[in-house]
Amino acid sequence: MTRFWAGALGAVLSLIGIADAQAFVVCGFHERPFIMRAIFWNSEFWVDMVANEAGKWNAVHPVVSVDRERRSTVPTGRDNLNVISWLSDASLQSAYGEAWGTSVGITLIWSDGECGRIVEADMIFNPSITLFTSQRQVPYSLGFQEIALHELGHALTLDHEETTPAVMTDGVAVSNVLYTQDKVGWFRSAQFRFSPQDKSDMGIFPLRAAGGAKRYATISPSTVAAGSTFTVRDISVENLSSGITFPNPQFRAFLVPISGAFITTLGTFNWASFCGFCSWGGNLTFSVPAGLTPGQYRFWIELSGSDNDLSNNVAQIGLVTVP
User: Fold this and answer.
1) Domain that holds residue 258
2) How much of the chain exceeds pLDDT 90, in percent?
């Protein structure tokens, strides 16, 4: 993905361990609605997914829209068209002088001066990417929805972010959700010319950035006798608002059998308050209730209550086997 410029159960967790998110990278700005044109010549299936991912950025502040055009040729280069399309390696080299190599998406941007107004952006996808199934459980695989969400972030002025979990990472797959860096980055970029409205938003994520690396959450041990404990490592909680403090956010941990629907609640954890643009990452230990029916269970954590983005309110961590 490239951008070219032309605790314990029932615990109240303290603010210790919550840290301000690192600086995001923004270059350029938008000052009017930005219309992109998706060129397709067969099914609109992939275009629908791009439009859906654009809606996640627009939920922060609406700027980008995706029009559609069915045609057999793709307009390329500087032509005042913000093209979204799929090009083979040979076509990409012919049109832009770039080869795919290991890249899966490229966004080429023309701006009015260095880091000025974005005047054109062409978004090109590698047609070899075919994974589009929902990424619900870690470890994630890099799917088309995540690639599209990432490339749209480039078109909206965001560069790569590696210090914290972010869809704008150039590294490990993080699924097609927006993280604090992503949302606050676009919110503050939009403030250059618009008046975006900050929204209340808490999120739970099954990965953590620590020691310069991103680590997927794990369950240890994953086979747990009824009445015994297990530890969930490397989960993250984020307040994705730029400046709104979230009062008393509470999360519930529970098990769901893979062949059933009943829920076994393991406990809750919460903070008295959670500052805007802040995050927490760490480990939590839970007990499997005595007498729980043997079997395999999916382990989930979800936000109790509601906020303005349901997409990040629940995380599936992995499987727990009760012998």
Assistant:
1) 200-322
2) 72
